[in-house]
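agent> fetching stored inputs for the zinc ion docking request
agent> found them:
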Amino acid sequence: MSSLTVTLPDGSTREMPAGATAGDVAAAIGRGLARAAVAARVNGAEVDLGSPLPRRAAVEIITAGTPKGREILRHSTAHVLAQAVLELWPGAKFAIGPPIDNGFYYDFDLPGGASFSDEDLERIEARMRRIVGEDQPFAREELTRDEGLALFADQPYKVEIIEGVDPTEGAAGGSVSAYRNTERFVDLCRGPHVPSTARLGSFKLTRVAGAYWRGDEHNAQLQRIYGTAWESDKALADHLRQVEEAEKRDHRRLGVELDLFHFPPEIGSGLAVFHPKGGIVRRCMEDYSRVEHEAADYQFVYTPHLAKSTLFETSGHLQWYAEGMYPPMEMEGATYYPKPMNCPLHVLVYKAQQRSYRDLPLRLFELGTVYRFERSGVLHGLLRARGFTQDDAHIFCTPDQLEAELASLLAFVLRLLRTFGFEDFEAELATRPEKYVGDPGEWDVATAALRLALEAAGVPYVVAEGEGAFYAPKIDVHIRDAIGRRWQMSTLQVDFQLPPRFDLEFTGADNARHRPYMIHRALFGSVERFFGVLVEHFAGAFPAWLAPVQARVLGVRNDHDDTAAAVVARLRAEGLRADWTPGDEPLGSRIRRAKLEKLPYVLVVGDDDVAAGTVGVNARGGDRPERGVPVDAFVARLKAEVDTRSAAG
Ligand SMILES: [Zn+2]
Ligand SMILES: [Zn+2]
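agent> prediction call returned; pasting tokens
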């Protein structure tokens, strides 16, 4: 009897009978693997577990709990969603249903232009559970293009997709594949899929939204249903808890509750105003950044918010970044643009004089506000706005200095992030893409220097081969916040475009002219975005050094008010931020209000304290107040916490 040879990812081989499938391989390896399997990679291509293997097959089983496995579970669940909707709304048209981060969606066109309500989600979910209970197989069908067009004749969106299939590919006239679950339900799809609907079940539909066919507002408006799906009920429950926690921490909501900032419609979308309390947090962030930059030998510059179009033509922004720019303004025969980046303006500072190698490295720093056009649909509070301030620096250095500069820059970045309470870093090193400007040898030098910096800093990193910008290799530093979410924060880039475009030079020790390296670097990225991330990371409970009010003093009764006011005066004299509320209101409700404001400390003054010069200290999150703490001792403690910028408080 003929057999086939399977090579497993660990390099071992296995003989299997002819006609064996990837699913058989999983079963032969072990029951655990067979249970976790959702699909397979055979000779590099993703296939269904049930598809027969070729004579020589490198087989990798895709399991449910992996990113790829989850993608397959999610997309398979999207098919079940489509089946449920088509059963409940006869005549509905269905468009596309891809997996997305943490879930999936499917777009529908309901008869008579109807839309889904939130109540419909429950009904659809119940029908989906029935389909899962029916253990329907996902059976793959290979079709010619014409067969596909006939099969989906009453589904215009599917027809449009099939019409887009290249007729020279696959079978004569092109081929498509479909997955059939029942006589009545079949979906156009490349696959792979789980073997049957019984493999699914840990899912939940989350919301409905409008969406345009192919994302184009000139096309039909469709109804989109979003859902999430996981490999187990536990993973689903963990995810839903995480979402709930994230909602509680949403900086847009806390921004209003804690009176930090808002987006007035009178100003326009994506443009925030900071209120006094948010202003204190922001000023503390910026002051800290200034102090650190000064200590690291940066020179501070200021540049305007507008510049002539000619500057952005020279810099190339009008060629490759025009879509991200605000529209131009005409004035006295010239065209001006709000700046989308500070770089070209800093370049002009460099060019203001003849530079010698003795001037380098020249590190220019600015808290520079930039304006970028973002579609209103993608704006997201402070995390994605149209106007924001970068803690932006550009470093001009000699080739010899590049390596040391990058290493110290990265160390600087990490020190700053740690101060804000982030400990868990991952970096991405993005290298030269296929299309690039500059000299490949210089790219290699810069990429090697970036890599060395990562290794010196001991940051775990992945290499994103070919993912650099066309003008620069770069390091992106990602952090994990208090609830495990990953955020991209700081960026370091070595630019190969602006120095030649602006013909930057320095005079070397050899008295000849050389081109400097130019590094772009933002630590916070955008101050506003970093602020938003901090609000979510701390859930609005800022550590004392950032908190708008560090301590509130409360007398137990009105006759303690004078003492409370005196304690506040003492704290303020020490440069601490304190306030008090009079004893007209019951103490309990004043303490509750202070808790809602997430203040680091609430100090209570009672009869004994007046005589002894003490306070009762309620630390945020502490279980019981400390009584009889001498005011001096508390002042020293809070000052130490603020001076060390303790992120724990
Ligand atoms: Zn599919
Ligand atoms: Zn820049």
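agent> quick read of the result: The two ends are 72 Å apart (CA to CA).
agent> awaiting further instructions
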